[in-house]
Design a protein that fits this description.
2 domains, two-stranded antiparallel ribbon, HD_GYP_dom, GAF domain-containing protein, GAF, GAF-like_dom_sf
C-alpha cells in the first residue's frame, strides 16, 4: 500500500470512529489526537465557538511538557478564550485579526506559520508568555477552521511544532500535510455538528417530558410534586445499586445510554394520567 493510499485509509477509519463516538469529551479528544498524529505535532489545541463569538479552549495537549487539559483528563481548562471581536478606540465592535486563531475563524482559511518568533503577521504575546513560563518554544503553527454543513465556522483546530520523524527536531508543517489535516477537520466539524444536533434534540425532549410531568402534577392537589420526586428517587436507588459491590447488585451497572433511558422513563412513568379524568386521579 502506497503512502497516499495509507493516508486515505486512515482518514476513512478516523471518519468512522468520529461518527461512532457519542461522548463529547472523547470526541473532541479524538479529533485533536488524530490531527496531532497526522501532522506529527508535539502540541495542539481545539477551540469551540460560543454564541458570544468567543473561541473557547476545550482540549489542550503538549506532549513534551506532559501538559494536558480538557477532554477526558478531568483537568479543567486554565486558559482564557480568544475573542473574535473587540472594541476599538471609538467603541466600535471590530474583527480581531491580530490573533491567529480568531483570524482563521473569521476568514475560514488555513494558516501555516513557519516560525512564530520570526513572524510579524500575528500577535503571539500569549504564546510567548506560555513559553517563558514553561521553557517551551512554540515555532511552527498550523491553524485550521472547522466548518459545518452551512460553511459556518464552529471551531478551530491548531497544531504546534511539527516534529521531524528521524531527528525529533521542530520543522514547519509540510504543505503535503495541510490537505490531510483539513480533510480531518472537515470530518471533525460534521461529527461535532451531529453531536450538537443530538444534544439539542435531547434537550428538547427533556423539556417536553418535564412539561408533561408538570401537567400531570397540576391535575391533582393530592399527588402534586409526585412526578418531580420519582426521577430523583429513581436515580438515587439506581446509583446505590450501581455502587453495590456485594449481594444481588454486585455486577449491576448502567452505561451512559441506559442512564438516559432510565431518566426519560422516570419522568414519563405517569404520562398516561394526562388523559385520565381528574376525579379518577383524585380517587387513586
Amino acid at each position: 500500500m502506497s503512502a497516499e493510499q495509507a493516508s486515505f485509509k486512515r482518514l476513512i477509519d478516523i471518519g468512522i470512529a468520529l461518527s461512532a463516538e457519542k461522548n463529547p469529551a472523547r470526541l473532541m479528544e479524538t479529533i485533536l489526537l488524530e490531527a496531532k498524529s497526522m501532522g506529527r505535532a508535539d502540541a495542539g489545541s481545539l477551540y469551540i465557538r460560543t454564541q458570544q463569538d468567543q473561541l473557547e479552549f476545550v482540549i489542550v495537549r503538549t506532549d513534551s511538557l506532559g501538559f494536558a487539559e480538557g477532554g477526558t483528563t478531568g483537568v479543567p481548562i486554565s486558559m482564557f478564550p480568544v475573542e473574535m471581536y473587540h472594541l476599538d478606540a471609538t467603541g466600535q465592535r471590530v474583527e480581531n485579526h491580530s490573533n491567529i486563531v480568531s483570524e482563521a475563524a473569521l476568514t475560514g482559511e488555513t494558516i501555516n506559520i513557519v516560525d512564530a518568533y520570526d513572524s510579524a503577521a500575528f500577535n503571539f504575546t500569549g504564546t510567548k508568555k506560555f513559553d517563558a513560563i514553561t521553557g517551551y518554544r512554540s515555532e511552527s503553527f498550523l491553524t485550521i477552521p472547522l466548518k459545518n454543513s452551512q460553511d459556518y465556522v464552529i471551531g478551530v483546530l491548531q497544531l504546534i511544532n511539527s516534529l521531524e520523524p528521524k531527528t525529533g527536531q521542530v520543522v514547519p508543517f509540510g504543505r503535503d500535510i495541510e490537505p490531510l489535516v483539513e480533510a480531518l477537520a472537515s470530518q471533525a466539524a460534521v461529527a461535532l455538528e451531529n453531536q450538537n444536533l443530538i444534544e439539542s434534540q435531547k434537550n428538547l425532549l427533556d423539556s417536553f417530558v418535564r412539561l408533561m410531568a408538570g401537567t400531570v402534577d397540576a391535575k391533582s392537589p393530592y399527588t402534586g410534586g409526585h412526578c418531580q420526586r420519582v426521577p430523583q428517587l429513581t436515580e438515587m436507588l439506581t446509583q446505590a445499586a450501581c455502587d453495590s459491590d456485594k449481594g444481588p447488585f454486585a455486577d449491576f451497572s448502567l452505561n451512559e445510554e441506559q442512564w438516559y433511558e432510565l431518566h426519560i422513563a422516570a419522568w414519563l412513568h405517569d404520562c398516561g394520567k394526562v388523559t385520565t379524568p381528574e376525579y379518577v386521579v383524585d380517587k387513586a
